[in-house]
Design goal:
This protein is α+β, with helices and mostly antiparallel strands. It contains 17 helices and 19 strands. It has 3 domains: 7-54 and 110-224 and 267-286, no CATH class; 289-410, 2-Layer Sandwich (Alpha-Beta Plaits); 414-521, Alpha-Beta Plaits, CATH 3.30.70. Strands 8, 11, 12, 13, 14, 15, 16, 17, 18 and 19 form a 10-stranded mixed β-sheet that branches. The protein has a 3-stranded mixed β-sheet with strand order 4-6-7, with helices on one face. Strands 1-2 form a two-stranded antiparallel sheet. Residues 60-68 and 77-96 have low confidence and may be disordered. Belongs to the pseudouridine synthase Pus10 family. Pfam families: Pus10_C, Pus10_N_euk.
Length: 531
Amino acid sequence: MSSLAEKDRAVVQLLLEAGTCPRCVLRFCCVGSQLLYRHPPQDLMKDLQEFLKNSQEKEGTVCLDVADPPCKRIRLEQSREEGADDLNHNGAVPQLPSGNAATESSAGKVCSVCLGILQDFCEADFVKKVCQKVNSADYQFTSFVFSVSLPPQLSVRERAAWLGVKQQMRNLGLPLPKDDIIQLKEAYKWIIHPQLSEELGVPADGKSLFEVSVVFAHPETDEECHFLATACPDCFKPAKNKQSVFTRMAVLKALERIKEEDFLKHFPCPPSSPKNLCDALEIQCNNGAVFVAGRYNKYSRNLPQTPWIIDGERKLESSVEELISEHLMAEFKADSFNFSSSGREDVDVRTLGNGRPFAMELVNPRRIRFSAEEMKRLQQAINDSSDKIQVRDLQLVTREAIGRMKEGEEEKTKTYSALIWTDKAIQREDIAFLDDIKELRLEQKTPLRVLHRRPLAVRCRLIHTMECHYIDEHHFRLRLKTQAGTYIKEFVHGDFGRTKPNIGSLLNRTADILELDVESVDVDWPPTLAD
């Protein structure tokens, strides 16, 4: 049972007289019934009028016969003054105005506390406007979570309304039984969730990845927070990506710090009724990211993994990332993407064998459901579009699963095939000893070619095994199994002595690398799919 008791009468009457809407009155009386807030405002006003009328005639409790689920409350003050000071100067208890005067004061006005959010923006017309926006965006979703962004000055007005009630209750010599209220956001969601669910045909779910959000603003009262910056300057610091220092969190922090007497000096209590309703500035939809993983082979020696752009100038027309992403972006209808992979190869290096694991995060996709057969067709479309790359094992994965691609990355092994040139002639027996070297430990300073984008450091890496195939007096092919993160080109030519030992120093001659292929990336992810 959710009820208004005789002790609430003064609060109800004072709030209505100050221009507070019926739903905000219920919030200030900590009425936690969701069903009650969904009643039309006109009916709530009649109920409050009846309550005031009945409570004047007799003492007792007026019960509103609705369910009473748990609710969240927000503290408005940390302390209350009670005792003899609550009486007026002559010890008498003044009388409240009549109930009719109070309700007439509140009727037909924009609420002085919620600025109309619990009035016009709970009506069917606004709900339909929100749903039209959602449906026109053409998202796939099976549930939704609703979020709302409120003007920060609403917190100031809530505090002012409560202090106004507190002052008048003192003057009336009446006790103030509580100093917390139902949060505006929660009350608003209680009202609008069932309407949105019915209109969209899906349930509201706090864990849903599909978000419908509304951003409210009230330009008429925008400057009402500004006095807090003078009273509590430490609470308002410029922040990146914030257009104003008067954020909701900053205002709440300042309201916790400011003394009651300082607040009363700068802001009217109770607050005045505004002329205009809030504006619904934005109605936005956003789907949680979808993650796609697979393996790619790169067959071109003139294709970077990611776009190659230097000083704003594109060096090559495409990249592995772009050849894959253009198809995924089109099919998932996403806003943007983030590409990651298990390591990377240079522009002139091929990736063969089972390919290199990669993952792509598709941000705010309109389409999220794909069958295994549809993913196969998408993979085929990527493969048919270019002879420079091929994709395999394309599949939907979770965010958590992507972490497996990076787990123990430096402990993983990779296998390479390098075509090597030497300045001095070689015979088979000159390179045969390389096959017997196991677990060769290298010290590699950051290569000169990547020093512009990586910090200078000495990295210890292992060459697990090597296998040589003699070609002619100046060429042989070297197959290596190495620790992931080993710079292979530098291991061959030495990078002016920055990698020690190296093939040149081992053979006691100048060596260089002509071609390099990645033959395997030993990461057991993503799972192999049947053809």
